User: Fold these one by one.
Assistant:
Number 1:
Amino acid sequence: MQTADRTKKIASGTRGVVYKEALRVQAEGNKVLKMNTGNPAAFGFPVPESLKKAIADAVQKAAAYSESTGAKEAKEAILAYDLSKGFKNISEKDIYLGNGVSELAEMVCTALLNPGDEVLCPCPNYNLWSNSVLLAEGKPVFYECFEDRKWMPDAEEIESHISDRTKAIVIINPNNPTGALYSDELLKNIAEVAKRHSLVIFADEIYDRLLMDGAKHTSMAALAPDQPVLTFNGLSKSHIVCGFRCGWMTASGFTDEEGENFKTVLETLSSVRLCSNTFAQYCVPAALADPAYTVEMMSPGGRLYERREATVNAVNDSEYLSVIKNTGALYCFVRIDPERVHIKDGNDKQFAMELVRDKHIMVVPGSGFDYPKPNYFRIVMLPEPEELAKAVHEIDDFCRTYDEKHYR
Ligand code: PLP
């Protein structure tokens, strides 16, 4: 039996070979600090009480399939949320619930791409997006996010990658893995590029509520109301329910005939899989009515804020590592000094596997985010602050001995 060619380039960044090595080391009886996925409940973050109640109340009705694109009460809450963020000319019909943003990313790529069509993806990139493009037999084409510009991309650089096969641009804001939050000016410039070339924007805004330091998030759809934008959001991170698989997308600006056809295809694809997890859907109204949980977590004294502080401070105290402090999400993308630690091109996974074996710490190397430079890895800021600081210290220590082990 032969597997389909389209699967050959698919690889999970967060649950790939380094993760398998971490599980192997763990099976040998070691305690491994696994910082591979942004999975807060796995680190003991409690589910908000409001959601626990919503789940309990929904037991009977959640036993039935919902409408394929989502239950009315979930859509009403999402519509109100989107309107509060400045979306224009949308209705419940433009909202599609999914088993996480993950399912919807695949769905939109299936709906939009013919073999060989191109989608612009950030580099580094949460590789759900490149994998979804590849599964639809499309081609991810990467645009750069620049470390020396606090990991911002550049609209002109993005435009330089556009060909006659380009159909969409993925914007992850706030970003995974860098935690960067994009300025309105940058978003507007990117929207203009998309408009000039008739591209759909895939705006992955799953971290829009995970903000620190007084930062405010602007939705791409609010800045570009007259052009096609698919905005992705969900409860996985803001409400600690990754396992519920609760995501949604809103189609704004799909006003012409092609746009209407596209939405009909999304409806058909939603119907083929009947509906998304209904428990998760019935949590949406309660969750969106309870922003306080997330705000508290991201404020001084809050769980994620204090973890971010501990991580960044520890990196700043280290000898071999540096980082751009993140204002959003729960990640930072750490640089290993390439002048002092000589990881060869293509060897970042090897570095991460040795780190798991030596220090029992798992991080995802840059290549897990389609990043070509070998001296980067992502930290998930979910362990206790002291544990995070200790892990950073251990990684720094591992860097100290790396060249000695490999070159002497
Ligand atoms: N988009 C981004 C940028 C993510 O970081 C993640 C998960 O880490 C997802 C989408 C997937 O989210 P979901 O749990 O809704 O599938």
Number 2:
Amino acid sequence: MKVLVLTGAGISAESGIPTFRDADGLWEGHRVEEVATPAAFQQNPQLVHKFYNARRRHLLQEHVRPNAAHIALAEYEKNHDDDFLLITQNVDNLHFVAGSQNVLPMHGQLMEARCTETDRVIPWREDLTPSTPDPETPSRRGSLRPNVVWFGEMPHGMDEIQMAAQNADLFLAIGTSAVVYPAAGIVQETPVNCRRIEINLNATPQSGVFTETIRGSASIEVPKFLKRLQLEAKTSGEA
Ligand code: APR
């Protein structure tokens, strides 16, 4: 059984990382969509860096850890014999910390910086500013940006995502509001006989195309559902 998982901010909510659209969706009076664009970075790099610096610092706090949903996905992958791909829209690193292996962070990673001149990606834990020197070429200043995908930019791994969607036997969407494309459209790329499961506190615009919708918190419902899958596999003799 080929398994494809898509996660969004809802899976990390119980790890203490605020989602984008559940509260008022504002950061210091700015809509996220206004801060997370290449145009915003050009016009006001200071502001954009400030936004991501705050989020990076938050992620580095001791208490921000993977929750039971991240951990259950990593465990499931370990025991799964066929294809397993975990696509995440989250820029936090919690799936990696939990031990997931085949992870595709389609919107990039907050704990990485990218040089806008060379496209080189480097692990990054510090604040960035418009004059941060590139550690490899210290005379080059201000070329580093957070390695996250902004509105209007192409997410990573689209070919791989499309292929995995077309071959999926089971598609599991967890904690995503299904309003940001192309991620929101992945479910529609899966075959009609693919078992499509949505786990979310609330209904989404895509809920209608799922085979089963599970309403509840990710930390409870994800481990529960994955246990159910394993039991089903045992009963049917499949891995
Ligand atoms: N368990 C399950 N679902 C939850 C939980 C929880 N504990 N908490 C919140 N949710 C659900 C909400 O009901 C909502 O549908 O998670 C979803 C969070 O939605 P968004 O904040 O819109 O996050 P996401 O779908 O990941 O956003 C997509 O938008 O701003 C961009 O690039 C950013 O990757 C992000 C993209």
